[in-house]
């Protein structure tokens, strides 16, 4: 890693670290950049005016009117500079983050150089680094698995040796325990192929009942109404997938920290009462998804007529339309190639958020960068139509 890459990395880390400091009115360093810069400019100008009169042995009130005007001017200029810096950093970081999400392979060399560079870090920072690398590895594997899902019919025809899985698991533990280790792409592919061949812990699907000779005509109509694509729920060690659900209501039970993927849902309602790690929604139509607070992010792609009730770190929507969001976010709501997005605050009976939900109506659209005109792709939902949802409904 050259000097320019190190400088850019340090600049971004310093900005993100400072931006995530909890707001405290008594601590100016936790204020937003415009207020912080304006405060220190005003204090510095006032102190300079005081020592100026003290040096020339003048009363404190001497020249107070022009000095006040000068202090106000300096404060306003400092506030403007803070706004400019915050806007520049936010815009640049948003563009970089979006590019990284689209082309993660371009940053493999950058991440490898970062892991191999010698750093003097404490034990706590080592733990944070290991946890961050583990999370990124799991998200990357999950993203690849969703892009190229293995056929469900072939999972039982192929097999993976338990000894091979155990060896891969031991290698992964050694890799995660060493903060200076290099992530090998070939090793990631081995893990991905092994995960795709592992048998599901359980799977079940709705089947058509075999007709008896004495079946009536009405029963025959019921059988004909069953959809051809069977509802499938599979569960592996770290993820749970729901697919091919039509005209049904499902309560998806599980353990906190599991990843969830929902694909090919139509006219259905899915309730997730546990705290998932990451939720992926793809090709969901005219359905409702009610989620307990999510640890990481919610990804929505190729959906329409969807109602999502979610509280997460970040919500991303790609190539979707007519989406109703009842949300709470710590980070941001990011949309791209979307239309008809409506947002409202997250309201679920029996759930109280641990943070202030003030960013639910701050939507960032990569297809609408101007701020001079209102964005036609999203809007705040009419307050009279806001709803309160319940995770206990069956």
UniProtKB/TrEMBL annotation:
GO terms for biological process: mitochondrial electron transport, NADH to ubiquinone; post-chaperonin tubulin folding pathway; tubulin complex assembly. Residues 213-368 form the C-CAP/cofactor C-like domain. It comes from the Eukaryota. Keywords: Chaperone, Membrane, Transmembrane, Transmembrane helix. The keyword Membrane applies. The chain crosses the membrane at residues 33-51, 60-82. GO terms for cellular component: mitochondrial inner membrane. The keyword Transmembrane helix applies. Belongs to the TBCC family. This is C-CAP/cofactor C-like domain-containing protein. It comes from Enterobius vermicularis (Human pinworm).
């Amino acid at each position: 890693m050259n000097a320019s890459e190190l400088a850019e990395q340090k600049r971004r880390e310093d900005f993100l670290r400072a931006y995530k400091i909890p707001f405290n009115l008594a601590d100016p360093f936790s204020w937003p950049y415009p207020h912080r810069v304006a405060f220190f400019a005003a204090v510095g100008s006032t102190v300079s005016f005081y020592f100026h009169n003290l040096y020339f042995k003048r009363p404190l009130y001497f020249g107070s009117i022009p000095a006040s005007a000068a202090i106000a001017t300096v404060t306003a200029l400092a506030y403007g500079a803070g706004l400019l810096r915050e806007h520049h950093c936010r815009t640049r970081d948003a563009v970089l983050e979006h590019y990284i999400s689209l082309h993660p392979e371009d940053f493999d060399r950058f991440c490898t150089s970062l892991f191999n560079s010698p750093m003097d870090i404490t034990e706590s920072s080592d733990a944070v680094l290991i946890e961050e690398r583990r999370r990124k590895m799991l998200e990357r594997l999950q993203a690849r698995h969703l892009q190229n899902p293995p056929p469900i019919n072939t999972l039982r025809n192929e097999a993976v040796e338990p000894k091979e899985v155990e060896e891969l698991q031991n290698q992964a533990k050694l890799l995660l325990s060493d903060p200076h280790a290099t992530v090998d792409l070939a090793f990631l592919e081995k893990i991905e192929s092994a995960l795709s061949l592992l048998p599901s812990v359980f799977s079940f699907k709705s089947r058509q009942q075999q007709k008896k000779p004495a079946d009536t005509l009405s029963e025959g109509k019921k059988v004909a109404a069953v959809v051809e694509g069977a509802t499938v729920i599979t569960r592996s060690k770290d993820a749970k997938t729901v697919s091919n659900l039509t005209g049904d209501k499902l309560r998806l039970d599980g353990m906190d920290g599991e990843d969830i993927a929902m694909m090919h849902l139509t006219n259905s309602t899915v309730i997730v009462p546990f705290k998932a790690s990451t939720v992926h929604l793809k090709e969901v139509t005219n359905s409702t998804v009610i989620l307990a607070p999510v640890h990481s992010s919610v990804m929505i792609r190729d959906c329409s007529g969807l109602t999502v009730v979610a509280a997460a770190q970040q919500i991303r929507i790609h190539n979707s339309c007519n989406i109703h969001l009842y949300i709470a976010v710590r980070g941001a709501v990011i949309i791209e190639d979307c239309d008809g997005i409506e947002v409202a605050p997250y309201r679920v009976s029996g759930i109280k958020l641990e943070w202030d939900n003030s960013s639910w109506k701050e939507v960032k659209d990569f297809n609408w960068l101007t701020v001079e005109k209102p964005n036609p792709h999203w809007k705040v939902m009419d307050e009279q139509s806001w709803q309160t949802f319940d995770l206990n409904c069956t």
